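Suppose a classmate hands you a notebook page containing two proteins, each written out with its sequence and a corresponding row of structure tokens. How would you begin to make sense of it? This section walks through that situation. The first entry is reproduced here exactly as it would appear on such a page.
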Amino acid sequence: MILRRKSSPHHNATLAGARSTAPLATVPAWLRRAVPDAKSLAGKDLEDLALSAGAAIGALDAIVRRQERWAGAWRQRLALAAAAVTAKQVGRVEDEAALRDAVLLTRPGESLSVGPAGLLLLAWRRLASRPAEELLTLKTLAAVLKEFGYAPDDEVVSDLSDDLRQLATGAGMVATLTGSFMAAERHGLARAVGAWLADALLAQRLGWPHALPLLGAEAALGISARSRRSAASFGATGIETDPERAKGLLAARARAAIRAIDLSADLERRADRMLTVAPKLRAKAAGTVVDKLLSDDAIVASERISGMSDRGLRRLFDRLVELGAVRELSGRTTFRIYGL
């Protein structure tokens, strides 16, 4: 049992406040049918795929603009999925659980000790947590390329920034999407970097406060060998002349948006459950723990939280698991990690 103390009405209101009143997000059946997988692009028209991608992003935009209290956890779960696929693409063996361990079990301020795979997760977490307007600055681009494993190169960062600025101001939605990958390829960067850039540009174009890591979790991005060979001959905005690449990327974006919508519905149910039981919590600083769980993928049981002892935090997590509000994600008896 958790030690109980008398709670104030304000305390309970804080814990239970900001619960979602909107219906759970759903994807229309026609949209799911209209979005092909990577092996079913043959015979699909560019216009039809653009329509499907636009509908999927429109549905996703409606969720983003609700600015739900659990949006931070949503973005970070998407970042974790993107990092796992990125790690696999570069030959790493770390799965989502190992990536989560690498970052969460590292002391604050020791980011370099998370290892190469952990740095990939930090890159995607940066996309999810930094304000969207800051994502394509020279400082952020330099940090992200380092996390993706590239040696510092001010010239590459500057040229890449120029390419992205042109895309942001002078290209349509399709050209912006495909141009992000072309800009990355022109500078010898992996397609995962192109996915990161495309997600950042989408957030800026739509005026989202934070980007959603979408394309990084798409293992197949429809980028043909012919498209890759064209990287040196087209400018950053000229890639729209390659319809096959555009078709593959539009389908990937639509699949990613649908996956993000499905995840939002799952997390909304979990968040509502936690906010329902939150008024039952009497532990000191319980409201801070609830906020952390709603704003991040997971937190460790040993995290330092002002006003709460290690023992008190472990008891609080035990209580939350008992109430069905959170899950223990590591499967271990020590160094436990909890999240929605």
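The notebook's second entry, a different protein, reads as follows.
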Amino acid sequence: MQLGMASALETLCGRAYGAKQYHLLGIYMQRCWIVLFLCSILLLPLFVFATPILKLIGQPADTAEQTGLVAIWLIPFHFSFPFQFTLQRFLQSQLKTGVVALVSGGALLIHVILSWVFVYKLRVGIVGTALTLDFSWWVSVFGMFIYCVCGGCQLSWTGFSTQAFTGLWEFFKLSVASGIMLLLENIYYRVLIMVSGFVYNTKVAVDALSICVTILGWESMIPLGFLAATGYVTGCKPHSFHDFIYLRFTICDF
């Protein structure tokens, strides 16, 4: 949901960058921070009460208890979404994809090291896995934020502005529509995992389906990355309709 809501920032930042209204990019991003952070608070009960909710819909007690435990420790991960997704789109709309890749690569390296220490050496278990995930995502957030405020985006980041608190309702409506669209596109994967909790030998079914969905998610990153690049190129620079159609079909053929 939050990923879809942050996707609304792509359109606004892409248009502002193409129109050379660079100062608006930082204002749009701060506005997105406010809206998404408030939505994160509204979604917080899903993490806090994950165990009773899962038991209420008929999930096995042991699966519900374990899921609830992980959900509690993933709350910091949940609150990183408003900043992670918006910073990515803020930088990508300025064609600074190399910075995003570099920061993400560094965060991945840190995550691998911490996972090896906490999960395999210290045997912290599923809680340790959740904590390493929390930490690595916030490393990525701070890495991109430091780049933006320390001179990497001199034209588009001019500091915190009170203008970010104006037009919140219009931005909320746009972001919710985008969030619902992406939610409906991807919710059936999650529904399948939920349904697997009702079959015989639940643990094996959930594990197997989670692995399959994860592999499918990795695979989908390739075409999604190319399609996102096409959107940023066509959004940030003036192109004819013929150029837009050519780029789209070239990506699809690839």
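A careful reader of the second entry would note: DSSP finds ten helices and no strands in the chain.
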